[in-house]
Amino acid sequence: MVIEQPARWMRWLYPKAMWRMKKDERTVYLTFDDGPIPESTPFILETLAEFGIKATFFMVGENVKRHPELYERIVAEGHQVGNHTFNHLGAFKHWTITYIINTFKANELIHAHLFRPPHGWMRPSEYYWLRKEFRVVMWDVVTRDYSKWMTADGVVNNVKRYVRNGSIITFHDSLKSIDKLRTALPESIRWLKEQGYAFKTIE
Fold first, then answer.
1. What are 135's strand-pairing partners?
2. How far apart are CA 203 and CA 191, in angstroms?
3. In terms of Cα–Cα distance, which of 113, 142, 117, 141 is closest to 127?
């Protein structure tokens, strides 16, 4: 439960971060972390286009540098972009200044006003400085599509079990996730539509 849907104490750590959107709107916000990469991003974009959905992509700067055509495609197709650091840094493994510099380096390529920390954690000092420049976006549901112990059905079941009005749902645009997403992403979207949810990007 702490993984799929963050506990209240986690929200207290970053009180001005976005964890969930409006509770009175039957709307969800699909987000994708860690891309773009050619092995998964095209499939995700094609699936979203098939359903007429826009999403928010929290991208790693070095992946954008390697695959600028995918970044440009994401933007051209009307999706929102967010910063996920340049090297997918773990916040507690680096000095605050290193983490901040790495994030701003990524933003030279991503040009985002949204930020999500890799692994969902930041030092208080990192959070303090980054929220001055970015809207910090966390999540309300993590599908755990990255886990080698998780099946595609398990990913879909996590969506079904934990989603609610205003949920920010996190998938991953990565090699660890793509085999599951080929089944789980369209199935999750179909189910959400059947339940009457609309889809929005984080502005």
1. 114
2. 24
3. 117
What is the DSSP pairing of strand 27-33 with strand 168-172? parallel
Amino acid letter for position 76: A
Instruction: Spot the catalytic one: 79, 84, 88, 172.
Output: 172
Length of the chain: 203
Identify the CATH assignment for 8-199 out of 3.30.230.10, 3.30.70.100, 3.10.129.10, 3.20.20.370: 3.20.20.370
Q: What's the pLDDT score for residue 1?
A: 44
H-type helices in 33-177, by residue range? Answer: 41-51, 61-66, 68-76, 96-110, 124-133, 152-162
Catalytic site includes residue 33: yes
Distance of CA 97 to the CA centre of its chain: 24
Strand partners, 56: 31, 80
Residue 79 bears catalytic tag: no
Asked whether residue 198 carries a pLDDT value surpassing 70, the answer given is yes
Write down the catalytic residue from 24, 33, 113, 145: 33
Alpha carbons 186 and 86: distance in angstroms, whole number: 29
Q: What integer is the mean pLDDT of 174-178?
A: 97
Q: Where are the domains of the chain?
A: 8-199
